[in-house]
Amino acid sequence: MDLWSPGVIRYCYGANRRAERPVRLVFSGVAQGSKTHAGLSKQSGYDAWEVQKLEGEYVEAFPKDKLVYLTADAQQVLRRFDPEKVYVIGGIVDRNRLKGRTLEKAQTQGIAAEQLPLSEHIEMGSYSRVLTVNHVLNMVLDYQASNDWRGVCERCVPGRKVYKVTGEGPKAQASVESLKRRAYSALVVPSKGRLLNSSGEVLDGAQTVREAKLTSGDVLTLHVNQVQLKAVRNGHSAAFAALLGDGSVVTWGDAYFGGDSSAVQDQLRDVQQIQASYSAFAAILHDGSVVAWGDARHGGDSSAVQDQLRDVQQIQATECAFAAILGDGSVVTWGDADYGADSSAVQEQLRDVQQIQASLGAFAAIRSDGSVVTWGHARGGGDSSAVQDQLRDVQQIQASRGAFAAILHDGSVVAWGDADFGGDSSAVQDQLRDVQQIQASDQAFAAILGDGSVVTWGDAYFGGDSSAVQDQLRDVQQIQASSHAFAAILRDGSVVTWGPADFGGESSAVQDQLRDVQQIQASDRHAFAAILGDGSVVTWANDYSGGDCSAVQDQLRDVQQIQSSGGAFAAILRDGSVVTWGDADYGGDSRAVQEQLRDVQQIQATECAFAAIRSDGSVVTWGNAAFGGDSSTVLEQLRDAHQIQAGNSDCAAILRDVMTTEGEVADVEDAPEKGEPVSPE
Questions:
Q1: pLDDT at position 378
Q2: Which ranges of the chain have pLDDT less than 70?
Q3: From CA 92, how far away is CA 99, in angstroms rounded?
Q4: What is the dihedral of CA 167, 168, 173, 179, to 10 degrees?
Q5: Helices 133-146 and 6-18 meet at what angle, rounded to 10?
Q6: What CATH class is the domain 6-154?
Q7: CA distance 164 to 67
Q8: Pairing of strands 312-317, 249-253
Q9: How many Cβ atoms are within 10 Å of 344's Cβ, its own excluded?
């Protein structure tokens, strides 16, 4: 840890606490009196950090055959994390490169070394493959939640490249926008992005080079965002919103559900991320303010709290309300009071909030001290008074549609909310020990214990009773849930399912095919699809909703990821093409756009439609037009869409700043030399 800065360590600790599936963190080399320990001691709350701290080296604390050093210099490529191993991250800190140091250290200590499979999923180019500690940890945490290396690489790898723009220079009276277009052409990047000056300020495209006070030799940074997709949906209607590389937003679909953002279009600039409720959107801007649109009753109107929405860090949503965490740890809410928009009764308690979880109508906030504050629909989890004294040292919270389940530091679980939705775990309370993670269907929970066994509770019709397969639930690695059923992947790659047969709880017809399963996707209601190690796919449950892929089985080769709507699936193959199956009314038939489905990077879905983002940043949509399946009215604007976010009845596409390219302003005609000020004419 001698090479680690306290800031990096603090970041890693916070990232792990906020993660959907945290890992067990161990900090080594933090002996009393060391420089690292002295720096950490100055960090707020360090003594209460819930991590293992070793004064000595990790080789003294763990068997060498269990240790694996993650280093870009290793020859061996890591495919999957082995839960029996201890992975070491270290040596590359704060963007510094110490060539070969980590591999040399691993070899000297006699421990294994592996590199992350970056080059197998993205083009790294000619620059260094080394990542900082925080980037590596983010990738580990992302993979824990997604089990998708390609997606991890797209979301987490910073694509910084340095180029020099050469050729005929722009005139001083030329616009910044024209300079930006030259940068696009020279750097071969999509045509949407933000151009920053050497001070990091975003340049106004309407200004001239002279007005922007640019001089020959100035280094400009072009931020080009990488595609990210996220969706929430319902069964009534839907809309999509695409966040472009320059931070602007394009929307389409049902206007009532957020498909029309014209009323706030001029405010949607420099957007960083978008969240959605049942029928509204809320966007966080670069300056920490928020813009909302869509159904006013469900959070589309934030005017009542607009002056409070400053320095917003993240937003969570119930079906009809939003909750924003500010930089100081306080919370601001708006939308339907019955669904959590009214937090006045607990406002004084909403301090030092780290994360918020939401059920259909209630919120649960975890504070920095591990306590929990709840509000919203009382029966749906908004009232935790019956278990408040038990909610201590909470690590993470999972939600069904009407209840919450919290994992405590000691591995026990506290549940509250509607008993019919899993809010009462008393029948299995003595079994809930050493819980590692919890998954939820609409009305039940399934917990994986440290020994790989599973404990379930809630409505039996929603998977709350696993007694019929309990003896098979051994060495469980992960669980996927549909609305009514669960599917567990075991260590050997086999699968165990339970819940109603019509919803995927019965997989006996394909059980002999379920071997070497890597990941499972569920449609909202009736079917599961599993990707095997060889890239083929096995499906089961309701045939019409995607449970039967026989019509496209021979096309399902080298499948990388699968997305689902309410009754259909869409698979991205290694070559970037897409295969769909299931109910045509839910997007299961993509023939009308099949020729356009090339070089697809990500897919997002509403209840009855899909949207695919290609490598060139363009968007292809199909499915029910009322659910966002027809984007023809905004097709020209949908160039370089980067993240799609779908609201409960809305969807929105958002772009994150992941790739940064830099270049010099070359030979600006009529512009002064470097260091000489520019005066407007």
A1: 95
A2: 1-7, 43-45, 90-100, 122-130, 154, 157-194, 216-217, 222-236, 525, 639-681
A3: 9
A4: -30
A5: 10
A6: alpha beta
A7: 43
A8: unpaired
A9: 9
Token pair recorded at residue 23 = 């890992």
Distance between first and last Cα of the chain = 56
- For residue 55, give every residue at least 6 positions away whose Cβ sits within 8 Å of its Cβ, in sequence order, or none: 29, 30, 31, 32
Residues in the chain: 681
- What are the structure tokens assigned to 232, written together? 């929430």
In eight-state DSSP terms, residue 85 is: S
- Residue type at 289? S
Identify residue 39 by its one-letter amino acid code. G
**Cα–Cα dist 477/516, whole Å:** 12
**Res 400: pLDDT:** 97
The pLDDT of residue 668 is: 41
pLDDT score for 245: 73
Q: Would you list the domain boundaries of the chain?
A: 6-154
Q: Are strands 249-253 and 239-244 parallel, antiparallel or unpaired?
A: antiparallel
How far is residue 525's CA from residue 503's CA, in Å, rounded to a whole number? Answer: 6
pLDDT of residue 171: 56
pLDDT of residue 321: 97
- Per-residue tokens: 482: 């549909």
- CA nearest 325: which of 352, 296, 291, 287? 352
The answer to whether the beta carbons of residues 503 and 526 sit under 8 Å apart is yes
Active-site positions read: 94
Taking the C-alpha atoms of residue 76 and residue 349, their distance in angstroms, rounded to an integer, is 50
User: Which tokens belong to 544?
Assistant: 């019409």
Distance CA 613, CA 623 (A): 15
